[in-house]
Records
---
Amino acid sequence: MKYLVIIEKGPNNFSAYVPDLPGCTSAGNTLEEILAGIREAIEGHLEVMREFGDPIPEPTSEPAFVDVAVAV
């Protein structure tokens, strides 16, 4: 399965979340660290869902970019 991951760069680190898995988040100091961390978070999140008998949601989120005019 491939889930959309949103990565946000803050002033001192990165954070990431998965829109299709509410509560599934991670943070890290580098892009490599955040990618490894969110993969681990997704795997753990899905494992807990299986343990509780919760249905695993299909990935449904898709990326889209919107162009907007910027006043200068």
Note: The mean pLDDT is 96.
---
Amino acid sequence: MELQGKILAVSILKCSPRSYTFLRSLFPLPSRRTLQSLLNTVQFGTGINVHVFSVLKDNVQTMSDKDHMCCLMFDEMSIREHLHFNQKIDCIEGFEDLGRHGRTSNIANHALVVMLHGLHRRWKQPIAYNLTRGSTKGDMLVDFLMEVLDACHNAGLVVVATVCDMGANNVKSLKQLGVSEKTPFFRFHDQEIAAVFDHPHLLKCTCNLFLKHEVMNVGLGVVVNGQPLTGTAKWADILKVYELDKQNELYHQLCKVTDRHLKHLHRMP
């Protein structure tokens, strides 16, 4: 199969692996190993990927103005320490690598990944990553974000929001950019960019806190028999309501809540 055909096969596989498996039973399509070998020939180094931005810049020219709007998401994850010699580029991989800021002799154990997500048109694309020893420091994260935002601006994209979790370094970097409770945004190239915290992460953290601590109600305007409603909310109260609802055979108020939601929680680190 020619290169263009393999590229099309990769696109189908990435969109829907199940569909590709079904199509491969009908047509002589390349195996997954063949497509993976093709992907391995494309080098994606640390820092900002200039090849991705070159393609994005070309695609932006065919988009409408509203489709230029996107949000920038970044997250950091722990990775296993490992060194590997890459014969193709004659380089040992696995050390701390900060893109244009160079490499160090420290073995990396964290990866910071940045991705763009369209707001009007549904598209997403990883655009940059760094390998670090320990979590990325707030000052370094600010410089990296400014570098990425500048690349997005030059490509014709309009970043209207950033999304991240409430990690200490993320909060510190956003504060350095001028984000606060009163001004939940910062300015870049005379444009306001909203700083949004990942809401599923916030809900999980709230749930974890509720598991550990009771919630005091100090009068929220609710009045019962002429007296303000006060009390203490406990996780045990939720479990009690859930068990009572399960006993109702005719109609369940909590029809989508299961034991997994209340008794087998995956706690945030």
Note: DSSP finds nine helices and 13 strands in the chain.
---
Amino acid sequence: MRTTSPLSDSEKQWLQNFQRKLETLDGTCTLTTNFLDPRQLELAEAILSRENSLSYTVFGGYPEAERNLLYIFPAQHQEKLPELEAIRVSWKSPAGQIGHRDLLGAVLALGLKRDQVGDIIVTEEQQAIVIVAAVQAAYISVNLTEVGQLKVESEVIDISGGLPVAEDDGRDIKGTVPSLRLDAVISLGFGLSRSRVVLLIKGGVVRVNWRPVNSPAHQLKEGDQISLRGRGRLLLTIVEGETRKGRMHIRLKKYS
């Protein structure tokens, strides 16, 4: 297995546990992991890339999430995203902001483990967002009433329309492509040669709608989100039709 750096003892132990969980899948079962940090996700994907009978999606509540859940399922099943919820924590205090560490400590004090908590996003309006698995959300929202010495209010919010956090507005890109193949769209969006893009796709660093895709010929459609590890993501916003020479006019949003 190739990884970017040698495995530590703790990483070896984690990977062994992950492999044991995969061995319990019998072709009909699914598996949702706890939240993985970027290194654990890298290790897990290296294993899953060799499992032809399995597919998976990666989701942490929003596209730029650092900590993500993996939903692993038989390759012939329909894909879906892991079930997440977001908790909005708000407070009123002239003393200043509650920090990330304060919030994490308060959530863990409710009896949760670190891998049961996703990203914590502190805003500038005396509010924060805590991302958790759906099964934990109601318990946390009821019991998270204090952070340190401050009283807080907690409520579960709908994330289907996106999280109320500051986001990159993206850069508009317009151009033509010979088709809506994945390699053609990535080439336009990131300014890379088609040959380079093909290698990247086959190398397992591209996801479409949070699902890994390793076929350069994968056909895209309006609304698809494409992420390229280490380079950002693209949103295929509009397919405008063909040129006289049969190329497709498209519009993209590029996010860093």
Note: The chain is about 25% helix and 30% strand.
---
Amino acid sequence: MIEAASGAVRYQTQLTNGTHSVISDTTQDKGGSGSGFRPHDLLEAALASCINITLRMYADQHGLALAGVTTRVQLDRSNPEETVFEYEVELQGTLSEQDRARLLSVAATCPVRRTLSKRMGFRAG
């Protein structure tokens, strides 16, 4: 569970899972100080980090020579009826084309992507 608490600075929010914490805020043009991740940045970060971790774990489990991964995620909200997560994966290491194709296929299976792909609902507690 994530807890969000108001910060001392207008709109700044302290997020914690009880062990780790991060600051969220909004941009200056919306009245914030721009001192932390915007909420939509956090959505992008969740997917980017999940793809990254999933690929590294897969490479470790299958003995692939993956030296590193860089993932980039951007939300496209230009269509009011659909939100699209656009992502890029950059693989480092001496990998065969078959290994690269396999890893790019595995990127689509990360748990956060699977979660975001399901029908969603919201319930106030």
Note: The CA atoms of residues 71 and 89 lie 5 Å apart.
